[in-house]
Design a protein that fits this description.
This protein is an alpha+beta fold. 38% of the residues lie in helices and 21% in strands. The chain has three domains: 182 residues, no CATH class; 167 residues, L,D-transpeptidase catalytic domain-like, CATH 2.40.440; 116 residues, Nuclear Transport Factor 2, Chain: A (Roll).
């Protein structure tokens, strides 16, 4: 599939048009003024909330509202209308300097520098902000949003910006598409700063992770964020240990999804898939077109649940951006997850292939780990019953754990089951242990579990690594896919 994809116009096509190279300097300044004013509006409003004041109490009664007041009203209305309706478990925080200092170490390096510039602007230190903005655009000449901020700061050196830009209406109209895209990018970046996961909380998909999964990735498409976790769990001697997941959030990056959004169903629909996946390999940038940036991390789409549902397509990657772009619009790719090249480089240095799960959700739900304990314990009871039947060689009982919808590489249960019978008859009853268990939950129209573990026979040091997909049918857990990996 990679070969076919390299010949396509590709993931950058739309973004290149939206964040085009033909934007004039004066148009850039106009867009920069609006973007910075919008950011300042949110910042000022946060400060007012900290003082217990409403946004209206400090309004200035003028015949012509200032750019700041116009932007504040626009950003507040947009945030109210576009915030997801369902509760996510995130906490809303004011954009105080102390709060930002806590968040910045987890952000991408360029984004953290941009936030530092916003801080200086909010303090009225425009000249200091200009120095940092000048260095940022020199270091990242393709960072569109940074150029807009830089352009506005240059404009402010000459005169105050009171309106939506002192340029002819025709130029302002020509910039409207770029402005709309950048407003949405800015809105999502700001939401990522004001809506934060509570300390110690994790996405609900991570019931437990084996120590071999040293890192995990969770993607919230509604907020254009990719969260990187470090797994601090020690080894578990058996599933019954009921050890809670111990994940530390170590990275928080802006990212883009498909041009047509999420929930991929068919090849070529320009949508990003939803579900639980694993990174399968790394791709050398020397072997890829410039379109994919500094490299790529393919995932196992379509996974067995996708296949069960008849979904098609392939070649879904986490990858970087072309050399002439820093980031994409929130929806811009052919279906891949796209990060800035510096952020992707961090992932390439950090994650491991085959053992790093990637959860892609329309909206993540965050909870404290102990909230998942009961769910995990109940499922582990079912898994233990499966292990016991397999250890005893009880074929009739064991077969009851498998769904009539079972499929493995095109073979249904009737075609696959003789392999199990032959294996257990040749080995006879033997004590089997489950080691290094990972359980990930996926709930949509079905309640499913993606289960990975080592199966080791008594007296042996090594075994096989299995992956199973379980589904809840008629209040019973059954297996609809099973295979060895590694």
């Amino acid at each position: 599939m990679a070969g076919r994809r390299m010949g396509q116009r590709g993931h950058a096509g739309v973004a290149a048009g939206q964040q085009g190279q033909g934007m004039s300097r004066r148009t850039t300044w106009v867009l920069g003024a609006v973007v910075v004013a919008a950011l300042l509006a949110v910042w000022v409003n946060s400060a007012r909330q900290d003082r217990g004041l409403s946004g209206a109490s400090d309004s200035i009664d003028t015949a012509e509202p200032s750019l700041l007041n116009q932007a504040m009203a626009r950003v507040q209305d947009t945030a109210r209308s576009q915030l997801p309706a369902s509760p996510s478990g995130l906490q809303t925080n004011s954009l105080t300097p102390a709060r930002l200092d806590e968040v910045k170490p987890m952000l991408g390096q360029a984004e953290a520098r941009l936030i530092g510039i916003y801080q200086l602007i909010s303090q009225g230190r425009h000249r200091d902000a200009l120095v940092l903005a000048d260095q940022l655009v020199k270091d990242h000449p393709n960072f569109q949003l940074a150029h807009l901020v830089h352009g506005d700061l240059l404009s402010l050196q000459a005169r105050p910006v009171r309106q939506l830009g002192d340029v002819p209406d025709t130029k302002a109209l020509a910039a409207s598409q770029q402005l709309s895209t950048l407003r949405e990018e800015s809105r999502r970046r700001l939401l990522a700063l004001t809506e934060r996961p509570p300390a110690g909380s994790i996405p609900t998909q991570f019931l437990t992770l084996a120590p071999q999964s040293r890192h995990a990735i969770a993607i919230d498409a509604s907020r254009s964020r990719l969260y990187l976790f470090e797994n601090l769990n020690p080894a578990r001697s058996s599933p019954g240990d009921n050890r809670q997941p111990n994940l530390k959030l170590v990275g928080d990056f802006y990212m883009s999804v498909g041009l047509s959004g999420i929930e991929k169903a068919v090849e070529g629909d320009k949508r990003t898939p939803l579900g639980v996946y694993y990174i399968t390999s790394t791709l050398n940038p020397a072997d890829l077109p410039d379109l994919y940036g500094v490299g790529a991390l393919p995932i196992n789409y379509p996974n067995p649940l996708d296949v069960q549902r008849g979904k098609t397509g392939s070649g879904i990657w986490l990858h970087g951006t072309p050399s002439d772009q820093f980031v994409r619009a929130p929806q811009a790719s052919d279906g891949c997850v796209v990060l800035s090249n510096p952020d992707l480089e961090r992932l390439l240095r950090t994650v491991q292939i085959r053992t790093t799960p990637v959860v892609i959700a329309p909206e993540l739900q965050w909870v404290q780990p102990d909230a998942l304990s009961q769910d995990l314990a109940q499922f582990e009871g079912v898994l233990e019953a499966w292990r016991r039947s397999r250890s005893e060689g009880n074929l009739a009982e064991l077969k009851g754990f498998y769904s009539s919808r079972f499929s493995n590489q095109g073979r249904d249960l009737a075609q696959w089951w003789p392999r199990v019978e032959n294996e257990l008859r040749s080995t006879g009853p033997r004590q089997l242990a489950i080691k290094d268990l990972s359980v990930l939950r996926w709930n949509d129209t079905d309640d499913t579990r993606v289960v990975t573990f080592g199966e080791v026979a008594a007296g042996q040091n090594r075994g096989v690594t299995k992956r199973q997909y379980w589904i809840r049918e008629n209040d019973r857990w059954t297996i609809f896919f099973e295979g060895n990996i590694g």
